[in-house]
Amino acid sequence: MAELLKEYGGKIVSFEQSESYYESVQKHFPDSLRETADLRLANVNLDWFGSYRGIYYDFEPPAEVDLVYIDGATRTRGNEESNFVYRRLNADLIRMHLAGTKIGHAITDHRWAIYPFYKDQLPGYNIKYSRWWKSIIIDPIN
Question: What three-state secondary structure class fits 34?
Fold first, then answer.
């Protein structure tokens, strides 16, 4: 993605919660792509969103995002206090919505279980399954 953005413009921001993975990526990431890719180490937090337990990266939501690709987090690593019976659903998109972030489009990887959570917590968005991509696609309702 960073290579495409270098060619066509834009910037990607990616979050990682594992310090060792983050350090490995930083060590091997091409310097030529650092202007188009912002790789950040961030803690994750857990919170309730209605009756759903959400997990999200600890970052300041931006004013506007063209595309959100949801690939994590779904669990906290190394925190025994957060190992409990409740399912944890990715809430980064919900937090951005609640903060007023203008979201152009969003897509998940294979996380169909998040669908009811998004339907409940994202009014004003068209939320649908993609059987072809095995994803959830989220677009604003115009």
Answer: coil
- The count of domains in the chain is 2
Tell me phi and psi for residue 36, to 5 degrees: -105, -5
Assess whether 32 and 100 both reside in one domain.
no
Domain that holds residue 112: 42-140
106-121 pLDDT tens trace: 998 877 888 999 999 9
Q: List the one residue out of 116, 22, 25, 135 whose CA is nearest residue 77.
A: 22
Going from the C-alpha of 71 to that of each of 7, 57, 58, 62, the distances in angstroms are 24, 12, 15, 18
Q: What is the pTM of this model?
A: 0.83
**5 and 52 share one domain:** no
- Residue 70 has a pLDDT of 87
Contact 115, 77 (CB under 8 A): no
